[in-house]
């Protein structure tokens, strides 16, 4: 199909412009410089080119996984209070996305020195984030228990999105390897004994279940992310597919808490088809320039696959 489309007048320019717009949204104004630094700086890296974390974080399915992660993470009241009070997700949602995306890129693909520097920066930010919820519960962003929840929800989301929409689905052993790779980053961030297999990950999420509930801030965040996103009007249909794909991957208990209805026939047919079409289009548009280091993906904020 790509060969057939290659001869369509103006298609190459459309592809270039679409890819540039997506990259700018995800990577920000420093995206090109960050991509060069991450992929062209020589030196040892935390993860070699054969590691599963590169396949997962280098795929367009990260767009779906990232949104699912935000929805799932919001169900912990203390984590959500920290996000609502300090992250600027409403006032500067694209800035928050770009910072997260760049962190994922640096720790996955960058040099070991650059990755450690990024981790040190995040830890310094976390030390300054603390407060009290509306219910009077104190929280701090560097609380190892809260960090553990954020990590578990994120890794589970990226893994499930890749299994559903990745260009090349991995086998079970490789997905266990992905959880183990992600644990290295989590440990550096201060997560105690992060899960290293899919079973450990499932057990960890189950252990957090009694603490999870959709408070007013979580419900407000879900409405913002799913129904009032900060995207141009022309992009709303594509974002709607992204939102539906992310919501459909949430576990039933999380959907019930967030008040998201399940429509079985639509979610087993239309949503997967639309989700595959969307991620394939993103993958097609965001082709990175040649690099001496294996290229990264759009969700990394510094490259794409």
TrEMBL record:
InterPro entries: MPAB/Lcp_cat_dom. Keywords: Membrane, Oxidoreductase, Transmembrane, Transmembrane helix. This is Oxygenase MpaB family protein. Residues 55-284 form the ER-bound oxygenase mpaB/mpaB'/Rubber oxygenase catalytic domain. The chain crosses the membrane at residues 233-254. It comes from Kitasatospora camelliae. Its EC number is 1.-.-.-. GO terms for molecular function: oxidoreductase activity. It comes from the Bacteria.
């Amino acid at each position: 199909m790509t060969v057939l489309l290659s001869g369509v007048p103006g298609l190459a320019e459309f592809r270039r412009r679409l890819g540039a717009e997506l990259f700018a949204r995800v990577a920000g104004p420093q995206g090109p410089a960050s991509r060069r630094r991450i992929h062209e700086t020589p030196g040892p890296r935390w993860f070699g080119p054969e590691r599963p974390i590169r396949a997962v974080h280098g795929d367009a399915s990260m767009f779906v996984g990232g949104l699912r992660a935000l929805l799932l993470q919001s169900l912990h009241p203390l984590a959500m209070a920290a996000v609502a009070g300090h992250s600027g997700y409403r006032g500067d949602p694209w800035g928050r996305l770009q910072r997260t995306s760049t962190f994922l890129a640096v720790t996955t693909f960058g040099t070991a020195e650059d990755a450690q520097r990024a981790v040190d920066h995040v830890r310094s930010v976390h030390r300054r984030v603390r407060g009290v919820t509306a219910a009077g519960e104190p929280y701090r962003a560097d609380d190892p228990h809260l960090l553990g929840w954020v990590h578990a929800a994120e890794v589970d989301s990226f893994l499930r999105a890749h299994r559903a929409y990745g260009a090349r689905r991995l086998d079970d052993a490789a997905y266990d390897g992905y959880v183990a790779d992600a644990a290295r980053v989590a440990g550096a961030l201060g997560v105690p004994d992060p899960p290293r297999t899919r079973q450990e990950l499932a057990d960890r999420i189950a252990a957090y279940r009694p603490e999870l509930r959709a408070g007013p801030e979580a419900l407000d965040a879900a409405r913002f992310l799913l129904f009032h996103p900060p995207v141009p009007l022309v992009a709303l249909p594509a974002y709607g597919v992204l939102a539906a794909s992310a919501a459909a991957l949430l576990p039933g208990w999380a959907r019930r808490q967030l008040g998201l209805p399940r429509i079985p026939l639509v979610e087993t047919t239309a949503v997967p088809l639309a989700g595959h079409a969307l991620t394939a289009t993103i993958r097609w548009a965001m082709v990175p320039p040649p690099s001496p280091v294996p290229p990264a993906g759009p969700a990394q904020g510094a490259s794409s696959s």
